[in-house]
Specification:
The N terminus is likely disordered. By secondary structure, this protein is mainly α.
Length: about 190
């Protein structure tokens, strides 16, 4: 096609823009369909998209918690599976600490030796295991939930410290998914 006349140049540009817009539209449709298909396969990175959909359903996360969950998802996309475990647990702990700190009189009544005055004090008190124990003490979780949380914490610790545990895509997606389900469950209760 020649561009000798201004009329043919204008037609060429308009047709190209329409064609490009159509290609972009079709690529988007293809991408969504391909991700839906690939998400059903065990080792497909497209499964992360399913997690992102679950994540979008969560409500009232702080900016910090939101960022930590997003970092966990990015770690998974980049095959940094141990880091993904650590980041998702960090978001979860921030959520739990904020909740515990919202009722300091009750926490201090159950744990008088802590003498917590702020969420920062709570974070400095001790280990994540102690925080989970405190959740049970103030009746914010059941014994079964406490055991499940300690299981998640143990898995996080395997990833955060030198061990022979090297999770893959499936383990990381499962872990983050479990953290998101627990967050959602606690949000509904509180």
């Amino acid at each position: 096609m020649t561009k000798s006349s201004s009329r043919s140049k204008s037609t060429f540009s308009d047709g190209s823009l329409q064609a490009a817009a159509e290609v972009v539209k079709r690529v988007g449709v293809f991408r969504r369909q391909a991700n839906a298909i690939l998400a059903t396969h065990e080792s497909a990175k497209s499964r992360i998209i399913t997690l992102e959909d679950s994540y979008k359903q969560l409500k009232s996360l702080s900016v910090k918690q939101d960022d930590l969950i997003k970092q966990a998802l990015r770690c998974t996309e980049n095959e940094l599976y141990r880091a993904a475990h650590v980041m998702s647990w960090a978001a979860f702990m921030d959520f739990l600490e904020e909740k515990l700190a919202s009722d300091l009189p009750q926490l201090n009544a159950r744990r008088p030796h802590w003498n917590v005055k702020s969420v920062e004090d709570l974070r400095d008190i001790g280990s994540d295991f102690q925080i989970v124990d405190a959740l049970r003490d103030v009746k914010l979780c059941t014994k079964t939930e406490e055991k499940a949380l300690k299981g998640l914490l143990n898995k996080r610790n395997e990833c955060a410290h030198p061990t022979d545990y090297y999770p893959g895509l499936n383990e990381s997606l499962g872990y983050i998914s479990e953290v998101l389900r627990r967050l959602e469950s606690f949000q509904k209760k509180w």
